[in-house]
Amino acid sequence: MRPHIKVNDMGHLTIGGVDAVKLADELDTPLYVVDENRIRERYREFYSAFSSLYPKVEIKYAYKANTSLAVLHILRQEGAGADILSEGELYIARKKIGLEAENIIFTGNNKTDRELELALEEDVIINIDAVHELERLIGICEEKGKEAKISFRVNPSVSPMTHPHLATGLRKSKFGIHEEDVIKVYRRAKDSDYLRILGIHMHIGSQITSTQPYEEATSKLFDIVGKLKRVLEIDLEFVDLGGGLGIRYERDSPYITPTDLANALIPIIKRKIKEHSIEEPTLYLEPGRYIVGDSSILLCRVSTVKQTPYKKFIGVDAGFHILLRPVLYGAYHEAVIANKMNQEPVERVDIAGNVCESGDILGRDRRLPNVEAGDVVAFLDVGAYCIIMASQYNSRPRPAEVLVRDGKYELIRERESVEDLLVKQRVPRRLLE
Ligand code: LLP
Fold first, then answer.
1. Of 33, 88, 245, 258, which residue is least crowded by CB atoms under 10 Å?
2. Ligand 1 center to residue 285 CA distance, Å?
3. Which CATH number is 353's domain given?
4. Same domain, 129 and 253
5. Residue 356 among the catalytic residues
6. Ligand 1 midpoint to CA 407 (Å)
7. What is the percentage of the chain residues whose pLDDT exceeds 70?
8. Is the pLDDT of residue 165 over 90?
9. 358 is in which domain, residue-wise?
10. Which residues line ligand 1 (CB under 6 A)?
């Protein structure tokens, strides 16, 4: 299995040395469990893959993947900066985690004036996504009399060969500024007294399992960097290659490692730096999924086993409100029975969520041992884009979250109560009569 996930002599799943069945018994289900050491391991693996080949590398962890505060502090301790996209993420990065402004890049699309103002106030790097946004930012800077540190997100028009919802650098994607407009926007920025141009950015998509699209996009991006030098005499301090490195949700699916990616990209980058006679920029990388994705599991309990004339369903106390990826993207999350790890699979079943919708199937046609009510199902690889995309749909409180390390556990998020579902609501008095 994964290095941090094992089976103990009771035939129970363990994570970070902690018995998952014990966690389910003591803390109740559904429960997210995060392995601290695994996050550290993946971060270090990613960072050293690039920094061993290139002298100036900075990781801006993509907050959107998982903003549990404990997770963010772990990554701060490891030295990660932040790729953020909203007022909330800005608040978390600056005020809760205490990152320095220069370690933060703000890359939202459709940023509001308020977001631009806050980003300017906090002095983080503003990664501009549209010509219109550039003009609005210049207006705001003029009004405040303050200089902004900026970069532009470029859309390199390449296919990352991933799920359509996860492709962001296609010709027709909503993201970024196209090559045709790049010189225009950098010229405009250079002519403004209020903008300090620091870099250039791309992010071509997510869950990418081949180096080829990265190679194509990186090469295009560095040709643009060369053109900026030639035409506008702009030297960029950083080039940001975005995130997107996929993980192995399925054992036999294709994958690449950070080392594969660094081995493919760094020679291209070095060649392009020479070819265009540009200064060596700092390389920014924005991994999210790779760093946190396989660190976590979701524990839920079987409440109902239903055999229809056509199919067998294992009904659990979790649904797409707390694990959305299977329903939204047809994503696969491996499921195991945490208290029956040594039992052989005997049948194929669907694992059904408890949301009142037909689409709420968390696992289809899974080979599992004989499953009974009370068994604990563990969904694996739920560290990225899972708890962060949880909702309270069907008026179900969001789950608790626990951090494990070296055989011990600590609660890092209390389970919501039903009262928590209602705290922000107000009922006009006349409706209570
Ligand atoms: N940088 C930018 C500008 C991004 O938009 C993203 C992800 C990343 C970095 C990090 O990408 P990663 O290394 O995590 O692939 N909810 C989807 C994934 C959406 C990704 C959005 N952008 C999912 O559950 O698969």
1. 88
2. 12
3. 2.40.37.10
4. yes
5. yes
6. 31
7. 100
8. no
9. 5-35+293-422
10. 62, 64-65, 83, 107, 166, 203, 206-207, 242-245, 286-290, 325, 329, 384-385
